[in-house]
Specification:
Strand content: 25-35%
Shape: globular
CATH superfamily: Alpha/Beta hydrolase fold, catalytic domain
Helix content: 25-40%
CATH architecture: 3-Layer(aba) Sandwich
CATH class: Alpha Beta
Largest sheet: 8 strands, mixed
Structural class: alpha/beta
Order of helices and strands: EEEHEHHEHEEHEH
Number of domains: 1
Distance between the termini: 22 Å
Radius of gyration: 16 Å
């Protein structure tokens, strides 16, 4: 449904996967990759947003690199340059909102695993984000400045998650509460990290994934 495009951020060229709805236009959503890179699953998520009436852009934070090996994925995640990631975010948001198929004045952002943390980071560095969704976000070097968060946030987490642990989720919830930031977190009992990823049958949970999908699409429709 979608295709690769080029866009720029602070004068640097980047790439991303853009999917547009059959209607011709729809609210804009940025889809941020897991630590694997801009792989088929993330492109499928962008296509699914387009099928639901959104214009979706999944930027490539690894600049062409991708893997299915956990050790290499971990290395790519840890090598992520935060300043470069911010340029990707700013460029992707500007590209999306200026695209002829985007009907909203603000963009939504959703991310998974590493991308969940980057989605929160994006919402804290760009005032053109109108809604943020974090699915079990984790990255030790990405520290969002939540005092700058100006959009509502949804968070979806797993009970059994060594990366985004229940303790870490509780601490994040408390931080946002103390700052008076609008947010709603849901932890799915019995599920594991990456339960939304249908390409990983060992952890994928269809029921939880579908509940997340319905909730976040409604969230974006309400806030964009």
């Amino acid at each position: 449904m979608g295709s690769m495009i080029e866009f720029s951020g602070n004068g640097k060229p980047f790439q991303g996967y853009l999917a547009t709805p059959e209607s011709g236009s729809g609210p804009g959503v940025i889809v941020i990759q897991e630590w694997w890179g801009l792989v088929g699953h993330i492109k499928d998520v962008a296509d699914r947003f387009a099928a639901a009436g959104f214009t979706a852009l999944a930027p490539d934070f690894y600049h062409g690199k991708a893997t299915d090996e956990p050790d290499e994925a971990g290395s790519l995640m840890m090598a992520l340059n935060i300043e470069d990631a911010e340029r990707v975010i700013q460029g992707a948001v500007a590209e999306l909102l200026n695209h002829e198929s985007c009907s909203s004045e603000k963009a939504g952002v959703v991310g998974f695993c590493m991308g969940g943390q980057l989605s929160m980071f994006a919402a804290c560095v760009n005032d053109s984000i109108g809604g943020c969704v974090n699915l079990y976000g984790i990255h030790p070097n990405v520290q969002p400045d939540f005092a700058r968060l100006n959009s509502p946030m949804l968070g979806f987490f797993a009970e059994h998650d060594e990366y985004a642990s229940p303790e870490a989720v509780a601490a994040l919830d408390q931080t946002l509460t103390d700052l008076g930031k609008e947010h709603s977190f849901t932890t799915y009992k019995g599920r594991q990290h990456a339960f939304f990823n249908s390409d990983r049958p060992e952890v994928y949970d269809h029921e939880a994934a579908e509940m997340c999908w319905e909730w976040m699409t409604e969230f974006f429709k309400e806030n964009l």
